[in-house]
Amino acid sequence: MKKILLAVIVVLLLVLVAWPYRAEWLLRTVIGLDNLRNPVLENQPVNWQRGEHAPADKRPNIILIVADDLGFNDISFHGGQQATLPTPAIDSLAQQGVSFSSAYAGNAVCAPSRAMLMTGRYSTRFGFEFTPAPRSFAKMFNILPQNSDAVHQPEVDMAAVDRLPTFQSMGMPTEEITLAEQLQAAGYHTLHIGKWHLGRDQGMRPEHQGFDESLLMESGLYLPVDDPQVVNARQDFDPLDQAIWLKMRYAASYNGGPAFAPKGYLTDYYTDQAISAIEANKDRPFFLYLAHWGVHSPLQALKADYDALAHIQDHRLRVYSAMLRALDRSVDRVMQALVDNGIDDNTLVIFTSDNGAPGYLGLPDLNAPFRGWKLSYFEGGVRVPFYVRWPQQLSPGLRYDAPVSHLDVFATVATAAKAGLPAERVLDSVDLLPYLSGDKQGLPHEAIFWREGDYQGVRAGDWKLMRSPNPNKIWLYNLKDDPLEIHNLAADKPDVVARMTAQLAEHNSQQQDSRWPSVVSLPVLIDKTMAEPATTDDEYIYWPN
Question: Which three-class secondary structure string do you get for 55-118?
């Protein structure tokens, strides 16, 4: 009887201890069952289709390399204020080509920004306003422990969560014409490696949107969590980071086939495959979209890269910097592959990031000297590295200072490839080549816009305006006089506010409503990382998604 009583007491104690975490354990169970239903196979070799020799076709090859969440200050070409390691390969793209000092992401978050890169159109023209995410991610904000003392809490609309379409069906409408489709129609062989985030079904996968071949990132681990080659860093202060570690797997797929394990550290694996794809297509014009996951969280570095950075004392910064080291190595290896295959001079290479670095990593200097983070329209969230190298056509070392946008990749590449531009639709993209050659003067854009629900921004000339409903505030800066956005002139320049507000209204009148609702509003501090405690005096915005 005493043993039974003791067993009952033990069970009750276990229930009492586990009860506060019951929702998290239920979530773990659901994710585990989903992983069992959708297993990841062992590594499968990718055999890239080989091209035939086409000596008469002198059009340039195109390589678009897009990093994920890369900070402006991560690149040593910009001054290296972070001072953790140099990025010589990425720097060389800027030194050997054109560097754009005022280049802007299409949005301050990944998926809409990538939609604009692929279409040359504001993604709000076709209802792609918010980043697709599984319902479980929104629910995790209610399930995982939150800091009850935080000044600003995430806001989740659970009724809207239940109205969300499936994650696979949230993407670009198939009626949109992607850069890959435009180049494919002109005879280019089109290849995609890495992240997509623009839809998974209903004809929205890369191989349905103009890519002849697609090696797709199926989840988000760089290596299995317990792999002896990897060093991990977790951000316990960030619910999103906790969700990523719970949900993500180590997986890829080829042209819609089953998920399989990549081979090696993800950044290096994508690079290996990019080099193989270049070698297979060296004899015909090709377009390679190398969409790296690096340096997006989860923070996972190759141990060899981590060990090489012993001078960095902070563990989290060291892991992040080791990830950046792998990204720079990737650029070096891809560029060497062009030389090795004899196609370096006539390959147009573009390097950029989808948006600025996030504050939720807890690393304060990633976007320095600019204020703001990913998920904000301050310069730190939207000003990105942007370099174009084409030895046969562009003089090395040119710096271009006028504002340009991710939108411009479409028209610039399509024109260089003699692929034409889509008709019967508004195209927001501008061909930058005439501005670089001096054939055109003035600004490529009268204004550049950003929109995420009611949080919106516009840059017109030297002026930049942002407005937010939460907090209810307007920011206005003259970036020529105040490039670091220190002095808010909204109260002093009502005429400029009125003019730019009218520009926003005209822009919004041409856009569509979002194809799915916003379900989460996340607080974003402008001048602090998530690792630092907020005060009531801190500037902030709420980012809707």
Answer: CCCCCCEEEEEEECCCCHHHCHHHCCCCCCCCCHHHHHHHHHCEEECCEECCCCCHHHHHHHHH
Q: How confident is the model at residue 57 (pLDDT cuts 50, 70, 90)?
A: confident
Length of the chain: 545
How many CB atoms neighbour CB 206 within 10 A?
Answer: 28
C-beta separation of 170 from 515 below 8 A? yes
Residue 399 parent element (H or E) = strand 398-400
Report d(CA 314, CA 361) in Å as an integer: 13
Report whether pLDDT(169) > 60. yes
Distances from the Cα of 161 to the Cα of 26, 145, 247, 516, angstroms: 18, 19, 18, 10
Query: Measured between alpha carbons, how far is 135 from 161 in angstroms, rounded to an integer?
Result: 6
Contacts of 43 (CB under 8 A, 6+ apart): 260, 261, 262, 263
Cα 365 to Cα 370: distance, rounded to the nearest angstrom? 9
Q: Residue 140: its pLDDT value, please? A: 73
pLDDT, averaged across the chain: 92
Give the chain's radius of gyration (CA, Å): 23
For residues 107 and 321, give the distance between their C-alpha atoms in angstroms, rounded to a whole number: 24
Average pLDDT rounded to a whole number, residues 85-111: 96
pLDDT in tens, 181-198: 999 999 999 999 999 999
Q: How far is CA 355 from CA 219, 291, 382, 469, in A?
A: 20, 13, 5, 22
Query: pTM of whole model > 0.90?
Result: yes
DSSP state of 151: S
Tokens for 20?
A: 């506060």
From the list 178, 140, 134, the residue with the least C-alpha distance to 156 is 140
Q: How many CA atoms lie within 13 A of 95 on its CB side?
A: 10
Report pLDDT digits (tens) over 381-398.
999 999 999 999 999 999
pLDDT above 70 (res 276): yes
Q: Is pLDDT above 60 for 305?
A: yes
SS3 of 233-295: the string is ECCCCCHHHHHHHHHCCCCEEECCCCCECCCCCHHHHHHHHHHHHHHHCCCCCEEEEEECCCC
pLDDT class for 33, splitting at 50, 70, 90? low
Closest C-alpha among 244, 258, 239 to residue 293:
244
Starting at the edge strand that comes first in sequence, how are the strands of the sheet with 189-194 ordered? 252-254, 213-217, 189-194, 286-291, 61-67, 347-353, 386-389, 98-100, 398-400
> In sequence order, which ranges of 341-387 are alpha helices (DSSP H)?
379-382
d(CA 298, CA 448): 31
Is residue 29 predicted with pLDDT exceeding 90?
no
Q: Residue 87's closest CA among 375, 258, 265, 326?
A: 326
Other beta carbons within 10 angstroms of residue 431's beta carbon come to 18
pLDDT confidence tier of residue 135, bands split at 50, 70 and 90: confident
Residue 172 has φ and ψ, to the nearest 5°, of -75, 135
